[in-house]
Structures are given as C-alpha cells and as structure tokens.
Amino acid sequence: MAETTRRSSGAATTASASSSSSTTLSPITQIAQDHIFSILLLLPIDSIISFSMTCSRFRSLALSESLWEAVCRRDWGTAAVDALKSSAEATNFQQQLSWMRLYKQVRQLDSVSCHRLSDPDVGMVLPKARASHSLNFVSDCLVLFGGGCEGAQLTELHPDMLESKPSIPQRGRHIDDTWVAYIGNGFRRTLRWEKIASGIPTGRFGHTCVVVGNHLVLFGGINDDGIRHNDTWIGQVVLHRTPGFAVSWRLLELSSAPPPPRGAHAGCCIGNNSMLIHGGIGPYGHRLGDTWVLDLSENLRFGTWREVVMTNPSPPPRSGHTLTCIAGNRTVLFGGRGLSYNVLNDLWLFEFSGKCSNWVQIVYDSQTIPGGISLPRVGHSATLILGGRVLIYGGEDSERRRKDDFWLVDVGAITPVSPVMNVWKRLNAKGYKPESRSFHGACTDQSGRFLFVLGGMVDGDVRPAEPGGLRFDAELFLAELVIYNCDTEEE
Hints:
By secondary structure, this protein is of the alpha+beta class. Helix content is 17%, strand content 32%. The chain has eight helices and 25 strands. It has helices spanning 2-25, 33-40, 45-52, 56-62, 65-76, 78-90, 99-107, 154-157, and strands spanning 111-116, 134-138, 141-145, 177-182, 193-198, 208-212, 215-222, 228-239, 245-251, 253-254, 266-270, 274-281, 287-296, 302-307, 322-327, 330-334, 347-351, 358-362, 381-384, 390-393, 406-409, 424-431, 441-444, 450-459, 470-481. An eight-stranded mixed β-sheet has the order 19-20-21-22-1-25-24-23, with no helix packed on it. A five-stranded mixed β-sheet has the order 10-14-13-12-11, with no helix packed on it. Strands 2-3-4-5 form a four-stranded antiparallel β-sheet, with no helix packed on it. Helix 3 packs antiparallel against helix 4 and helix 5 crosses helix 6. It is globular.
C-alpha cells in the first residue's frame, strides 16, 4: 500500500514537472494577443500560415479577418484596400468579402475580364482617336491629355522611330486638349467625358505624365514640327459645383537645368515626391540612355532636376519603353526599341536613394515563356496592379505586329540569384476582345483592380508596313482582374 502511494505521488510529481516544463518552454502563450498580432504582421505569408497550425488559439488569430485585412494593407497599400472596401460597399458585396480568400486569389491570378465600355448617348462629345497620349487616374477621375491624331505621317505613328527615313515628312497633327471622366468607386459602363481645355500645355505626343499625390506631373514630348520639349507641368483636377470638373495646368518653377529635350521616353513617380525619367529620343534623333530624377517641393510649387550618374551597368539607350514604380523607391523598366531599331525584352530594376542609386538587370529564365510567344515589344503599357505586380499589355514587335496579350511580371520573385525563375506569367483574357494595339494609354483605378485602356494604333485595311496600314483608335475598354465573383457580367 505504501509502495502504491509512493508510485502515485511520483507520477503526480512527474506530471506536474512536465506541465511546468511545458509552460516554461512555451513563453509565447503568455504574450498578449495584440502583441502576437503585431509580430505576425512582420512575417511572410507562409510563416503566418504555419503559425496558424500550432494550436487552436493561434489558428483563430492567424486566420482572423482583422489580421488579413492588415496583411493586405501591408502588402497592397492602404489606398488600395480602402478603395476595395468602398467598391464592395457600393456593389453590396461587403458581406462576401474575405480578406484571406481575396489575398490568395490575387496571388493565384490567372485571368482578366475585358469589358467594352458602353457607347455614349447620341450627341455626346468624345475625345478623338489618338495615340502616344497620356491617361492617368487621379482624384477619382480619368484624365486624358495630348497625343497624335489622324493626319500624322508614318514616323508620327511611331514616335519612337522619329529619326528614321528623313525623306518622310516630319509633320503630323499633335493634340493639345485635356479631358476628364469621373470614375468614383468601381467602374461605370458609361463614362461622360468633359473637355476641359486646349492649348495648355501646348500640343504634343510621346510625353510622360505621372501621378504624384493628387497632382499630375508632365514632362517633354514632341510637336508637329518634330521639336522635342523639356518643359515640366503640374496639373490638378478641381471639382466645381458648376459647370463641373476643371484641370488647372501650370509650368513648374525649376531651380536647376532640366534634362535635354526628348520624346518617346519613359517616366514614373518614385518615392513620395519625385519623378523618374529614362531614355527617349533627343533633338537630333539620337536615342538616349540617361536617367533623371525630379525632386518636388512639398507643395509642388518648385522642382529640381538632377541626372543620376551611374557607375554600374545601366539600361542601354532606347525609346518606347516603360517605367513602373513597384514600391517606394523601386522601379522596373521593360522593353522598348534600341539603337539599331531592334525591339527589346530586357528587364531592369532601379533602386533609388539619396546617396546611391543603381540599375540592376534582371536575368530571367526564358524557358518559362510558352513556345511561339514573342515577348519583345515597344509601345506597350506596364501598370502596377493589385497585389504589387506589373501588368503588361499590348505593344508591337520588330515587324510592327501589334499585340493583345496580358502578362504579369512578378516582382516578388526577383532575387539576386540569376537566372530568376517564374517572373513571367501570361494571363487569360475573357469577355470582350479588343483589337491589338500599341502606343495606347493605360492606368488603373485606386484599388489596382481595374485597368483602363484608351486609344492607340491598330491595324488598318492594308499591310501594316504601309502608311495606310495603321489607324488611330478612340476605343476605351476595361480589363478587370478576375479575383472574386462580383456584380459585373462578362460581355
């Protein structure tokens, strides 16, 4: 009996010691839930999922809607999440919105659904057909400026080839108008365009126009006489009760010399209050390979241009390429036409800092590109979308064959190891099928879920190599990321 009592007492002591040891080895269970929440937001997605499998208490926290909304804000930005919530509320979709499921679907994105925006009411004035214009989303509006229109010669149809064949007249029809269409939350099948002004800025095509805060920053471009500009303009959308919208343009006061005049260059915003440009075609028809940064004052009244001098390899001279800001001070460059008129498919990453800024070429595995697919292109668009990836659409190859394909560039897959795998992914296009095009305008809404595409050059009735084989287009269509069921229907 005494032996039995000693054994029971020993077992109880052992169990107690084991429990005490377990508690000692798991101090995380003593951490307050809000502290664990903060720690989880510092982890990559796979680590959050692994953490949810440790025990039921952690699982409920790691899979909570509040945590995953915070993760979406961390990875996509507050503005995109707020825009998604507003859009869901406007379409009565809020109750079905699961942030964890949405995050997963964005990561697995494989399709876009195209919609032709409805024909306007009879008698409504619309922007004329054009190419090499700018299209931006700012202050809940689409803002369209400039471009070239019907009547331009072959070289004007391809602003990145202005130095070719001097026997072809260098005169076309530039456009100097500004148009605004209110979008708000989500997308509307019928847009009402308002023509705001003409003449300011002066007419041009092949310019760049980027969004910095609630303002537009426009630089450069080419006019009818082939003259390249190097002026910098600030634009702002203003809503009046009557007659409606207005866009105010003003020349930016500069405290330094601007970059050399150019057109068919690439530009994007970078950092909080800066603009980045690269390349283009200069005054004598030479392709450029320089990089410049415009630093803006806090109130955008003054600016300072400075050239970024590189000690490391940088993208060779080109035109008709794209720059896309992917996060803070990081920018991706893709494609364009090189010095020997060859169309390019190289990919570069620019990391911007006050002391040291560098270009790094991203060497990717071309075996992941499906056979028969031509990736090199010029006159395409490259836009940052929901999920922090770049969506490339359209453009043309060295044979001037225009494209209608959509590609994702997964910037999250970029590492210092070469070659980088799984950077490119071709998306399926559903619904309405727009014509193949190049030198169009494209931008996304605040959420990054809707891509608006306007105008560009499309195939004419004869061979593309002939002047009559191209025509300007005025169509506006939308490509929606297929990420969850919503109240829109495919056409």
